[in-house]
Amino acid sequence: MSRVIKTGALAGCLLIASAAQAHEAGDFLLRVGVVYADPHASSGNVTLGGAGVGDGNWQVDVDSDTQLGITATYMLTDSIGIGVLGATPFKHDINAAGSIAGAGKLGETKQLPPTLTVQYFPLDRNSRYQPYVGAGINYTNFFEEDTTATLTGAVDAALGGGVIDDTNLRLDDSFGLALELGLDVQLTDQLGINAALWWADIDTTAKIDAVQNGQTLGTAEVDVDIDPMVYMVGLTYAF
Predict the structure, then answer these.
(1) Which of 1, 7, 152, 189 is most buried per CB count within 10 Å?
(2) What is the pLDDT of residues 123-150, one digit of tens each?
(3) Which GO terms describe its cellular component (predicted)?
(4) Are residues 230 and 200 in contact, defined by beta-carbon separation less than 8 angstroms?
(5) Could you give the CA distance from residue 170 to residue 174 in angstroms, rounded to a whole number?
């Protein structure tokens, strides 16, 4: 019985030691989970031809969204990796703010935020717990922008009424700084759990075309600093 117990204990120790052998140079880490983008938007005033629209204090806000997140890390050394963040397209409602805060939804957009970071893992590679920090660049591509009848009606009223019958929305893509903080916890030699967060400097200019019978009569603009916090929880697979 004693020999069986000792053998079992030794096997357990070997399993734990094996599980702790993580994040070596040349490893590839794939993480899949739920990712939540929470914009901390700061909006300028909507302008047309350099002048404020309406009372000059029209602003916008951006809602959050949850999607499937996928990240990958390639370990250049035991402590330095190159990380990439991707996700299925986020869809954000764009809402009225400032003096028109009660007007509701003005439009919507989808966006893809691929992010490239250099990651530093400070603990020894034998540690089961692997915190890391990263810094790099974010590129955000906005697409499938759309407006609501609320926005079209508000712009038409600001222009005097009966002037336009439609609006179009375009958002400039963004390049900016990205910061990252995360933790991998090894469960087996290849499988683990991960939690991570990012902050990204995402700035865009939204262009609102005032349209009558298919013709653009003018374009209003508003600068928006979206600057989201992005949170992800999921599984890590190392190979």
Answers:
(1) 152
(2) 988 899 999 999 999 999 999 999 999 9
(3) outer membrane
(4) yes
(5) 13
